Amino acid sequence: MKSNLTKLSTAALALSIMVSACTNDTKTSTSRDSLKTDSTANSSLKPAGPPPEWGQSIKPEMQAVIEKLASYGDKPIETLDATDARKNHTPTDAVMDLIALNKIEIPAPKVDTTGKDINVAGGKVHLRIYTPKSGNGPFPVIVYYHGGGFVIANLDVYNASAQGLAEQVNAVVVSVAYRLAPENKFPTAHQDAFAAYEWVVKNTVSIKGDPAKIAVVGESAGGNLAANVSIMARDKNIMVPVHEVLVYPIAQANMNTESYKMYANAKPLNKAMMTWFTEKYVNTMIEAQDPRISLVNAKLKGLPPTTIITAEIDPLHDDGTMIANKLADAGVKVSSRNYEGVSHEFFGMAAVVPEAKAAQAYAAEQLKAAFK
């Protein structure tokens, strides 16, 4: 990652507090909203070329991010080993560079951050804790799990999402740096995710949190982890989160769904990368059918109300739809929205992509309602 990533991330994600409200009523059960958003917030972000073949409906701001990411000339992640893949530029880098190039002004952060290492089985996990600057608490708490296919990325890359939620919900957010594969194979990330949640449950008061108001949120691989935390909490008879937000979660192992076929070559996530991620995390490919990875095979009854956010131009789009349907079939209250014209990883791009502002606002609305 670039050395200035943390500094840039901290500046950019503050803009995520300037959200545009979603006007559609929340849908329950298996119904889904598909939102079209006015792309006027950053009219200076114009793509240089025509829409890519894999995403003819892409919004201009999203395309500008993808073009900037391509401009770095990095080798495809699926051709690299994990160590080199982690050195590639990220969508966050592209967003930060667009902010700088377009002189987008960023409000001051409304949260303070601290770091803490906790002991887990076989090692330690780092937590980044975002605490609202205004008010004395106790605040509701969100345990947040970043994406990256269980292999790449870190707390800095997903800083915008975590801080955006902390500021909009006025909550303490605990972002979890679970250990990555292939150095730490399945189910290490899943065990780390739950160990971090257990720590939060036991130490809520010490971080100015309300022990009765704890939710989980995750993106992509992190969405899978967040759902697993709810399942493990249910099965281990400890406090189940009051709500879970799953943003384009990994929910099953079949890479021949319609969205995998349609967006096999999409950016920044494609089918080849998903195969690469899976091979790096599991010990054998048969393990990808484990209900902890293929959530559609899990026992879902008794999970908390769930919000699912998907992107149109995303191989994982159908994963989100499938797990939404499975949860609803299990009697779980489900609310979901699909955002058109954007691709995987859009959620943390609120500084430049209007759909990300809207999605963060929607997630924040759902969490605030759950915390009441």
Automatic annotation (TrEMBL):
Family matches, as InterPro entries: AB_hydrolase_3, AB_hydrolase_fold
Transmembrane annotation, as ranges: none
PROSITE patterns cross-referenced by the UniProt entry: PROKAR_LIPOPROTEIN
Start and end residues of each Alpha/beta hydrolase fold-3 domain: 142-347
Endpoints of the signal sequence: 1-23
Ranges annotated as biased composition (Polar residues): 25-45
GO MF annotation: an example: sterol ester esterase activity
Keywords recorded for this protein, A-Z: Signal
SUPFAM superfamilies according to UniProt: alpha/beta-Hydrolases
Gene3D superfamilies: alpha/beta hydrolase (3.40.50.1820)
Biological processes annotated in GO: triglyceride catabolic process
Chain residue ranges for the region called Disordered: 25-57
Cellular component aspect of the GO annotation: cytosol
Protein name (Swiss-Prot/TrEMBL): Acetyl esterase/lipase
Natural source organism: Pedobacter psychrotolerans
